Amino acid sequence: MSRDFTVLLSVYAQESPNNLDQALNSIYNEQELKPSEIVLVQDGPLTPELEEVIARYKAALPSVLKVFPLPENRGLGRSLNCGLKQCSYELVARMDTDDIALPHRFKKQIDFMEENPSVDIVGGAIEEFEQVPGDMKSIRFSREDHESLVRYAKSRNPLNHPTTLYKKSKLMEVGSYKHMPGHEDYYLWVRMIQAGAILANVKDTLLYFRVGNGMVNRRSGFKYIQHEHRFLKALKKLGFINIAEFYTLLFLKAPIRLMPNSALTILYKVLRRKAA
């Protein structure tokens, strides 16, 4: 298997220039195994400060960093769909522009894919932080083997999206990313499972995941309930969940989205995280 791979990112106007700088630095300068290509989609017009960061990395990595501007903001799913089509290599690693990849990340995943050629997508654990890496001492793990991940996917997202590395051809077979606000990645994993793709997670923590950037706000309120309802309806239509599971999940999740943010933050820590 070739060790060439692409890193796929999408940035929009509300991102912090400092966050983008840290993300790009961690993706290339600090990696034990450097990507052959970085595809960065500009999801609509950006601020001059973000443009300056991109221009600096473009000058430093002229043969590696490829930038694709979209004329207007189209949302994460559509943006990633556009970017995936531009990726030159079969193996594509996802990354968000406000996270920080650990130096061993890509080497661990490429090694894993070489040792497990039947696997189509592999993720890993994340360490959450608010201001600086390590300030929360909180690591989010998931299941590792395919069967456990499929069972887990019935009620929860089985993969940490920014840690995933996948085979481009498998994503294209199921239509790539779709517009599904708040659930673009989860919807993709389910469609891949339905198509027979093999999922896995490595045990290692692969990146620092920023949670002090309005994450709880984005996952609460009536609008998010509407997004979740649409997503669960899509899963039911696919036959991944039945009607009983649809209503059970809907009535379990909806009250959580209406909780005060302070209580929701505590609940996330209790239910979804394992202290380091």
Would you spell out the secondary-structure blueprint of this structure?
Blueprint lengths: L5 E6 L5 H11 L9 E7 L4 H13 L4 E6 L5 H11 L4 E4 L5 E2 L3 H11 L5 E9 L8 E3 L5 H7 L12 E3 H6 L10 H11 L4 E12 L4 H4 L3 H17 L4 H15 L3 H12 L1 E2 L1
Parallel strand pairs: 1-2, 1-4, 2-3, 6-9
Antiparallel strand pairs: 4-8, 5-9, 6-7, 6-8, 7-10
Helix pairs in contact: 1-2, 7-9, 9-10
Describe the structure.
The chain is an alpha/beta fold. It has one domain (6-220, 259-275): Spore Coat Polysaccharide Biosynthesis Protein SpsA, Chain A (Alpha-Beta Complex), CATH 3.90.550.10. Helix content is 43%, strand content 20%. The protein has 11 helices and 10 strands. Strands 1, 2, 3, 4, 5, 6, 7, 8, 9 and 10 form a 10-stranded mixed β-sheet that branches. Helix 7 runs parallel beside helix 9 (222-238). The model has no long low-confidence stretch (mean pLDDT 90).
> Main β-sheet: number of strands, strand sense, barrel status?
10 strands, mixed
**Total separate domains:** 1
* Arithmetic mean of pLDDT: 90
Structural class by SSE content: alpha/beta
Give the helix proportion (percent range). Answer: 40-55%
The CATH superfamily name is: Spore Coat Polysaccharide Biosynthesis Protein SpsA, Chain A
CATH topology (level 3) name: Spore Coat Polysaccharide Biosynthesis Protein SpsA, Chain A
Distance between the termini: 34 Å
Global outline: globular
Radius of gyration: 18 Å
